[in-house]
Amino acid sequence: MASEDQSNTPLQVIAASMGFGGVKVLTDVDVTIEGNGIVALVGPNGAGKTTLFNVICGALKPSHGEVFSFGEKMSGLSTEAIAGHGVFRTFQDLRLFRSLSVRENVCVGLGRSLRKKATVDKVDGLLEELDLASFEKVRARDLPHGAAKLLTVARVLVHDPKVLLLDEPGAGMDIQAYECLAAALKRRHDLPVILVEHNLDTVRDLASRVVFLDGGRVIADGPTDEILSRDDLAAIYFGSGGGSGVATDIAKDHE
Amino acid sequence: MAYFETVVVLGIASIILAVSLDLLIGVAGLFSAAVGVFYGVGAYTASIIWLHWTSDLLVALVAAFIVGGLLAIPFVVPALRSKKEVTFVVASLAFASIVGEVFASWNSVTGGYTGLYGFPVATVFGIQIPPGLPLVIVSTILVIIVIAGKELLARSAWGLNLRATRDDERAASSLGVHGSWLRIQVAVVASGVAALAGVLYAAQVGFVDPSSFTLGESELVAAMVVLGGLGSLYGPVVGAIILTAIPAGLTFVTIAPEYLGLIEQTAFGLIIVVIIIIRPDGIMSGLGRVRARLRPFEISRRRSDDGF
User: Fold this and answer.
1) Strand residue runs (E) in chain B
2) Domain count along chain A
3) Does the pLDDT value for residue B65 go beyond 60?
4) In this structure, are strands A209-214 and A37-42 parallel, antiparallel, or unpaired?
């Protein structure tokens, strides 16, 4: 399955399937992130978006299929090893290190490189860029929501990811925090990003391509404007489609 | 005044045990009931070295740290394979029972219930360190090194990753942190540190037997850590001093011997209850920590979630 140009492909999910107790949560999902920029993963609740993230990052092992990043096989590796290959993710439910300060949250996983001035400068720069400098010593559990969301992004950007997976980074943010996040992502236009997002204005604003997931299957994949103007997809997104919500609930229970 | 010096050296040993347990609970979020047993491992290791090889105190300290750490491996590695904290607690209880039984039964090495005694006065660089003031000085130096070492570890990149794992292991692993491996390392180091305290015990008391290294000792150390405040710099130190000073102070009060035990236990219990009511997070918790005041904020949804 591996080809020569696979080594230049940031992320390739090949025929990933995932099921629990006979309920299919993902079915033969193929997603390839070929270039840079932001690809949005869109779909109704229960479409399998977060499950796909968990499969890519090694939190869930797919029952079938494989995941590659720059030609290296990710499926079967531990989450730590996958992070070691430069694939980083944020979580929908924040999962900050609550008793640690904002600065400490950003420094987790940096190890010995924290002794280098360049690393400390990078941390300082990110805190500044994501409007977190004034919260530097505040414990994560005491942060306002917008700053907490930005911290989840700072925490992964500091690792210079090769591929970034963002799970609803803008949800519940005030406009100021959102603009800060959007600017940070646009500044990194050469970084391959997969974005799970419910807010379609955000998708229009940030993503150049949309992969539409429903019932654990990819049902559309194309340029943002084209996908978001399709009435059939709108009907699924807002209407009666996406009957697999129960399946995803089961998936979440198994994590 | 030999009694006072004994209280001081054993008090310092308690501080070392409390610091060791705080490294586990406060930094790594792991509770171990085997601290008292590793205290015993250190005491027995020192006694055996002094009886059979050399009277050198430093050799005994290094050996106790290594033996304590190595002995922790067969217990912590399987226990930490489970992500559930309660597994570690139960495994530590089981381990404590097994090692306690070994202390009491392995007559040829530990002397069984009779214990080990008659070892020479410990030496450092050839200078004798008898129980009393010289040992108080050496113990003080050791406890300062242990406290400083724990602080350095807790504030290092290693300690940061460990604290992150304690808060959210899944998030930490998504940032490349190997939580299980870090927990094994910290449990080994903490066990080695607890064993150091045992060396001081053996040097001061001049005699070791299984009765001093029981689960009761582990409970006492846990009370010290909780009372002082988890994960704080001076918390374990303050907790250990208070819980060492209470029984020591009561011996100066004229109490009929038949009531001494009752009054001691009651005073112990009352003080713990009162402190927990007044300062539920421990005496030293939150002291000296300036909490930044947050600016008022409002959570507002940026735009509607509607689209298309």
Assistant:
1) 116-117, 123-124, 127-128, 207-208
2) 1
3) yes
4) parallel
Question: Using CA of residue A72, residue A77, residue A81, residue A86, what is the dihedral sign?
Answer: positive
Q: Is the CB of residue B164 less than 8 Å away from at least one CB of chain A? A: yes
Note whether B292 contacts A173, CB cutoff 8 Å: no
Average pLDDT over residues B18-43: 92
Is the complex ipTM higher than 0.90?
no
Is residue A198 in a domain? yes
Q: Is B161 on the interface with A (CB under 8 A)?
A: yes
Domain membership of residue A24 as a residue range: 4-94+160-254
A121 assigned to some structural domain: no
Closest to B229 in 3D by CA, of B286, B282, B288, B273: B282
For chain B, what are the domain ranges?
2-214
Residues of chain A with C-beta less than 8 angstroms from the C-beta of B175: 83, 88, 108-109, 155-156, 159
Q: Is residue A99 included in any domain, yes or no?
A: no
* Sequence-distant (≥ 6) Cβ neighbours of residue B86 within 8 angstroms: none
Element (H, E) at A229: none
pLDDT tens digit at each of 255 positions of chain A: 445 567 889 999 998 898 887 788 899 999 999 888 899 999 988 888 989 999 999 999 999 999 999 999 999 899 999 999 999 999 999 999 999 999 999 999 999 898 999 999 999 999 999 999 999 999 999 999 999 999 999 999 999 999 999 999 888 889 999 999 999 999 999 999 999 988 888 999 999 999 999 989 999 999 998 888 888 888 888 875 444 444 444 444 444
The domain that holds A26 is classified in CATH as 3.40.50.300
**pLDDT the model gives residue B302:** 35
Residues of A within 8 A of B292 (CB-CB) are: 135, 137-138, 142
Q: What are B113's two structure tokens?
A: 């219930």
The CA radius of gyration of chain B, in Å to the nearest whole number, is 22
Buried-state track A196-210, b at ≥16 Cβ within 10 A, e below 16 = bbbbbbbbebbbebb
Strand residue runs (E) in B174-255: 207-208
- Give the torsion sign (CA, A127, A128, A131, A132): positive
Sign of the C-alpha dihedral computed for residues A204, A209, A212 and A216 taken in this order: negative
Give the integer Cα–Cα distance in Å for B292 and B281: 19
| B170 interfaces chain A, CB cutoff of 8 Å | yes
Q: Give ∠ CA A152-A155-A156 in degrees, rounded to 5.
A: 95
Whole-angstrom distance, CA of residue B117 vs CA of residue B85: 38
Least confident residue range of A188-197, A235-244, B82-91, B275-284: A235-244
